[in-house]
Amino acid sequence: MMENVKIAIVGASETSLLAAIKFGAVYPVIVFDPDSSKKARFDQHGIAFTDQASELADAGILLMTGPKRPAYTLDALAVQCKMVGQHMKKGSVLIFEAPVYPGTTEEVCIPLLEQHSGFTAGKEFFVGFAPSRWQHKEAQGTVVKMRKVIAGQNGPVADYLADLFMPIHDAGIHKAKSIRVAEAAQLLEIAQKEVNIALMNEVALTLDQQGIDTHDVLETANTKRGFIKFEPDLLGDTPMSWQGVADFWCKRQMKGRLVAQRIIKKLIQSEVVIHEARITVLGLMKQDGIGESPEAGVLELVSELQEYGIEVQVSDAQLELEQAECIEGLLLTRQEELLPAVSVILAVPHEAYRKAGWRLFERLLVDEEAYVFDVKSMLERNEKPEKVTLWRI
């Protein structure tokens, strides 16, 4: 049934490469995006890329990607549906995966596709919804070990999607009762995660004021059966999905700036002359995935440090492989070119930093009594050099 399937992934979003790698191990895959500058990222993995919408007509299945968080405007979605509708072939199966409000697929997407293709949904083309579940930490193998949620506009479409995803989701398939149920479930997943992370951010900042290590508290609380071990993400994206949630939990404060201010305070208490200090920030891009976006909190952190007159040098092991020099106006320094600094901030714990451990800091610190700020608590405390002062949250 799936022998001659060709999949076109529409949109080179953060999750598109993860999806292409997984699908590409089983089916022929091509990625489409009108921005040809994104081609290099897919070329590195041997994945076909095109910026010509006409090539969508060769694919029987179109995976409509988008941002992982509900920031998809209806205008952007309408543009995508119009373009795909103009080029898709009769009999195509379209799978939407980006988070949208319940009813969007059936009330917005299907009418647009019918209008611009001239085909009738359910007869000449078919639509399903499958929430994005391509996680970075589980993207290294050939199989994603996570149960996959799928929904179709009718039973046969749902069965078809189950057969399509089964080879790359060995944890099984869950067929949602309807597309609306799947859309609502995805929003609930995101809301639950972001509310809990926002809560942990507040807890972490409060515990730090009392000199308590957050990860020690989590490790202890996790001994209780049923405890859900969410971790703080102070340099990650501020919750944007529901403005009320962001206002309530985050108080509209920039977490990156708060972290920077706490670091500056600790350095001043240690009698470091701030305006003469050099600080190295390790890690800028989202952790160990193939996303193209930097962590918003790291940008805020760097900006705040610079406003205090501190010389900041930023390096990212993930980008060095691609010879990136500038991200969103922020100049990057190769790791081997970093000058010794009074302090190193480990902002994003990429795998390269995990493997190097404390050896990484031997050359980066100006002397043995310098300061290391481990924001994500990656480094082993029992292996810390004796004279290094370690702060983590």
Q: What do you see in this structure?
A:
With 393 residues, the chain is α/β, with parallel strands linked by helices. The protein folds into two domains: 7-176, Rossmann fold (3-Layer(aba) Sandwich); 254-392, 3-Layer(aba) Sandwich (Rossmann fold), CATH 3.40.50. It is 35% helix and 15% strand. The protein has twelve helices and 15 strands. The protein has helices at residues 16-24, 39-43, 74-87, 104-117, 155-165, 179-209, 214-221, 243-250, 255-269, 296-307, 317-320, 351-356; strands at 7-10, 29-32, 48-50, 61-64, 93-96, 126-129, 148-152, 173-175, 278-282, 311-315, 326-327, 330-331, 343-346, 371-374, 389-392. The strands form three sheets. It has an eight-stranded mixed sheet, with helices on both faces. It has a five-stranded parallel sheet with strand order 10-9-13-14-15. A two-stranded antiparallel ribbon has the order 11-12. α3 runs parallel beside α4 (104-117), α6 runs parallel beside α8 (243-250) and α9 crosses α10. Mean pLDDT is 84; it is low at 136-144 and 240-253. Belongs to the UDP-glucose/GDP-mannose dehydrogenase family. This is UDP-glucose/GDP-mannose dehydrogenase C-terminal domain-containing protein. InterPro entries: 6-PGluconate_DH-like_C_sf, NAD(P)-bd_dom_sf, UDP-Glc/GDP-Man, UDP-Glc/GDP-Man_DH_C, UDP-Glc/GDP-Man_DH_C_sf, UDP-Glc/GDP-Man_DH_dimer, UDP-Glc/GDP-Man_DH_N, UDP_ManNAc/GlcNAc_DH.
